[in-house]
Specification:
Elements: E1 3-6, E2 11-14, E3 28-32, E4 35-39, E5 46-47, E6 51-61, E7 64-70, E8 79-80, E9 83-85, H1 92-104, E10 107-119, E11 124-136, E12 146-152, H2 154-157, H3 164-175, E13 182-183, E14 197-198
Parallel strand pairs: 6-11
Antiparallel strand pairs: 1-2, 3-4, 4-5, 6-7, 6-9, 7-8, 7-12, 10-11, 13-14
Length: 199
Amino acid sequence: MTYAVHSETKQVTSMEANYCMTCGTPLETRDMDGTLRRACPACSFVHWGSYSAGVGALVMREGKLLLVRRAQEPGKGRWTNPGGFIEQLELIHETIVREVLEETGIEASVKKVVAFRDMPKSIHNIYIAFAMDYVSGEPVPDDHEVDAAGFYSLEEMETMNVAPFTRWLADVAWNGRDGGLVIDTDPVVPLDGYGLFRV
């Protein structure tokens, strides 16, 4: 996939955005409020850019943090917190519960959102980290995405090949400030299908 960024026009072009994802018509380039975007001349489709959203878990048990060792690239051989990319029709707090269970066999429940990373690049990535309560289970790697899993102390992590971003998240887990966003299970206005988080 090839991308070119043109700062003077705030244009990001993707070599793969050539045909409408709705009707298949070849896309044209349009100026939309000062940003050149690929758009369909036959219907209302606009390619707004390429984005991905990931979630990560900070699960503590007896003062130790749940970590997994990546068995695949990116980051093969590095220790990270469990997580993954959200599915199209899945709420993010459901995604992280599923990912933790799939990767480690640990059942955990969401407490709150405690960290957020924004990484603009060819595929603009956002990452949401959840503090989670340990519920049950012993760490068992899925032997597909991860080849090891366990709960580790800060001291143990010093001798492990822990990814830098995970070291930052570990600091959030042990030294984060009070507060954070919690799931709003009873919003003042019914909003079916929304995942709502608030202070």
